[in-house]
Predict the 3D structure of the following.
Amino acid sequence: MDKTFVGIDFGTCNLKVMYKKNNKFYELKLHKEVNSLDGQTPNVILYAKNSKGNIEHIIGKSALKNEDYPNTIKYIKKKLQQQNWKGFIPNLGRDVEAAEVSKDIFKFISKQLDERIKNEKEIAITMPVCFSELQKQCLYDAAVAAGLNVKYVLSESFAAAFSQESFLAGEENRLSLIFDLGGATLDISLVKISREGEDFIVEEMASTGLAYGGTDIDEGILAEIIMPQHAELFKNLTDKGIDYRKKVIEIIISMKERLYEDEEDECDDSDNLGDGNMTEFRLSREDVVQVLEKHGVKERIFTVLEEMFESLPDIIKEDVTDVRLFGGGSYIDYFPKLLTEFFGAEVFDYEDFDPTSLDRNDGNQLKTAVAAGAVRYITAKENGNIKVINRIPFHLGIKNNNRFKRILDRNRVWGNSNTGWVKLNNQEVQQDGFVINLYQTFANMPKIVPLTDDGSIIYMGKISLEKGLYDLQKPIFLKLFFDNQGELEAHLAQAKLVDEENQIVDVEVKKFGLGGWS
């Protein structure tokens, strides 16, 4: 029986599932409430209690409409960026972890897939560029535990590129800049496409990004635009114990979508927010630009792009042949204009960019491109005419005196072991219980910065030392690098006296890949 290839974009705000049949892309309607235009289901779960006292998992718009906020979890993917996140669910009477919530949502997807597709399924799931290996592992494990046959795990920006059939076309070498602005992150990949006979070589030359997405824009609009306009109202609601924030955020999302998808300059909405009095809200394109400029978005994006090109010795931005935009946030014309300014209109002209004209049947819509691209990627891999080469994004380092200490720079080629040894502080190793905490940072981070919870530094995992191998009175050394299989290796060593010369000798090696530490 033929296989069906499925792509799952487990987005921060929405779930998108695509599959390919008879050379056409189809959106999997996860339930009847899904908007027929884009097939998206809000990534929201409600742990509801029915009349018999049993717990039911309600996913999507029904969970939002219920407004049972204490038992509802939104943006679970964003919570995977937090170390050891837990949330209390009153109906369960206990905390839930991010992995458990993710598994419950994947179970919902798995059930819908089984009802619609009866033959064998091969699945690719996508994750942000900025996810650490620990986060990837967590989401992968949740999908597998839910019964999904996950064969590939792709970065969202890399998957999005494959959604366009023209991505693997043409005889000449090309260098594409993929810009994917989602709900929680901005993912950027620089991808080189070349040919060897009938085979395509797709090389991800570099990746970068920001912990900034649509949800941050929404929160900014609330704080900078809406709250100042209705300060007295919100104070009264707070005094009455009415939780208005989540409802107002939903209104902001609706107004923002109408601004750009319906090409309006200004729009409004109204709601009683639970106090019985209707309140009118208004949002303009100028308001959105004001928020983005206050957040320094242009400067931050320009910085990560410039640093990405600086990290590549043989590539400059003038080598880029085309720029491709994806993600719901790319509807905001601020971003196409920004990329035109950076690369020049001869490479990308925002005036020629029309996100509403993309072909739905080709899986080529901004909002579903990541899931559709994952399907096209599986197809290319199964046909055996594609070779993928990756580089590592961002910086990797360790906790050192409650600060991040950078060890491995981003975008080094697989197999490069010449990162050098880093001397560790024995006292800190002992204080951490013979454990070295490993972290990943985004671009444009200094070499040594404080560990914070603002999303700039992501916990990746830990290296537990075997105490019997080390003399804690002597320095311990560490180096990190990626092997030829793309797995991170951590080498630990101590100086030993050999032929009257101090030499560093490996005494312990650990690997960290999608399978975890081994």
Observations:
- Residues 34-38, 359-364, 514-518 have pLDDT under 50 and may be disordered.
- The first strand starts at residue 4 and ends at 10.
- The chain is about 30% helix and 35% strand.
- Residues 171 and 195 are 7 Å apart (CA to CA).
